[in-house]
Amino acid sequence: MIRPGKERGETVKIGIAAYSREQWVRLVAVAVDRVDMEDTWEEWLEVAKQESARLRQAGFEVREMAMDVDALEAYCRRRGLPNNADTRARYLAERLRAEDVNIRIRW
């Protein structure tokens, strides 16, 4: 199976959420799926590093994107969505697309 964009020779971009220790503490305080998350920031960081390396190995362009939980919470409120893994992934994908558009516009 060919990944989207590969047939045109493009590298597929994937965003990985990057939480500072302080933002992680804030996230676990407000996320509705806290029980499904790593217990500590250190555990989350290790999983994030492993996933990032796995995706790069698979040929993806990985962008680590700093997350601001207040901005994420505002996004959830505006759309009436819970702060869970699906919503965080959607938010990250929208940010990645917006960033890519902004980069292209500058050229």
Commentary on this structure:
- With 107 residues, this protein is mainly alpha-helical.
- The protein has one domain (11-106).
- The protein is 56% helix and 11% strand.
- It contains four helices and two strands; from the N terminus they run βααβαα.
- The protein has helices spanning 21-30, 41-57, 69-79, 85-106, and strands spanning 13-18, 61-66.
- A two-stranded parallel ribbon has the order 1-2.
- The longest helix is centred in the last third of the chain and has 22 residues, at 85-106.
- The radius of gyration is 15 Å and the shape is globular.
Give the low-pLDDT segments: 103-107
Q: Order of strands side by side in the largest beta sheet?
A: 1-2
Distance between the termini: 32 Å
- Quantity of strands, as a count: 2
Can you give the helix content as a percent range? 55-70%
Number of helices: 4
Largest pleated sheet:
2 strands, parallel
Number of domains: 1
Globular, elongated, flat, extended or rod-shaped: what is the shape? globular
The secondary-structure class comes to mainly alpha
Order of helices and strands: EHHEHH
Rg is: 15 Å
Percent strand = 5-15%
Average of per-residue pLDDT values: 88
